[in-house]
Amino acid sequence: MPKIFIVIPAYNEEKVIGKVISDIKKEGFKNIIVVDDGSEDKTADVAKKEGAKVLRHILNLGQGAAIETGLQYCRKIDADVVVTFDADGQFKASEIKKIIKPIIDKKADIVLGSRFLGKAVNIPFLKKLTLQAAIIFTDIFSNIKLTDTHNGFRAFSKKALNKIFINHSGMAHASDIIDQIKRHNLKYQEVPVTVFYTDYSLKKGQSILNSIRIVLDLLFDKLK
Amino acid sequence: MLASQVILSIIILFFILKITINFFFKKNISSKFFIFWLILWLIGLLFINFTPLLSFLAKKLGIGRGVDLAVYTSIILIFYFLYLINVEIYELKKRIEKLVRNLALKNKFKN
Q1: Cβ contact B100–A61 (<8 Å)
Q2: Which residue from B minimizes the CA distance to A77?
Q3: What CATH code would you report for A4-223?
Q4: The whole model's pTM is what?
Q5: Which of A12, A86, A128, B102 has most Cβ atoms within 10 angstroms of its Cβ?
């Protein structure tokens, strides 16, 4: 049986993190790692109470940095499959089995969730537009055609885990991962997933303005 | 000598003295940086007091006036420093990230 770990980066998610963890546990996944990215609320306590392992950043570094901390932990304990999952309740825990299947079947090194192959429930128009722009941007800069580039629902095989090191601490990490898939010639597969847009997740999620920052971040990195 | 030349020279001399004192007594700048700053300000001093030299250089470079050359050079230098600062901030962020991550992992393995 492969060692499967679920990594959840979380920042101020005390209201929803408990349910997210218990839903994942109900699906039979026991190894849950919450990376508390310097939350000011009780995210870490709630996660611990629900039985997750908690890694705590003493400062807020950003989602990319939080995921990388989780991945590093998984490298140290020699995990076979690592799933990244959002803390705000946007994803369905029942779809984890679907996302790890190509790795278990040895058909892919990394699996990317796609809300546009699957369902994006209540997605606001502007959000959809920005995501579509990101897809075109990725196609131009990373030369990979994907249907969803900024989806936090992914599964890494051991090979991908040991090749991909996230350099971008902020939200630009999604493009960074795709860049590295191309660079290391990893076998990837997209799997349809469901993403729910609730009032809570919209309030917590990325603003449209932030996407401009992501682009600037990426450009700076390329020019540096 | 014009009054403006005197004033500017005094300002520049102040900076030269400041970096020299900093280097010799407090040592909070590196020797490379010390030499770079010193040369930069000395060039400034030279141009202020020998304006024909600046005009001559400007003409050679196809820029009309000496003062234009001075402004263009300053802008290039400012952008260069901005870039350096940006890189420095980036490096600092990376180091902080590493520190915070190592602390998080260390604490987990202790538990």
Answers
A1: yes
A2: B109
A3: 3.90.550.10
A4: 0.80
A5: A86
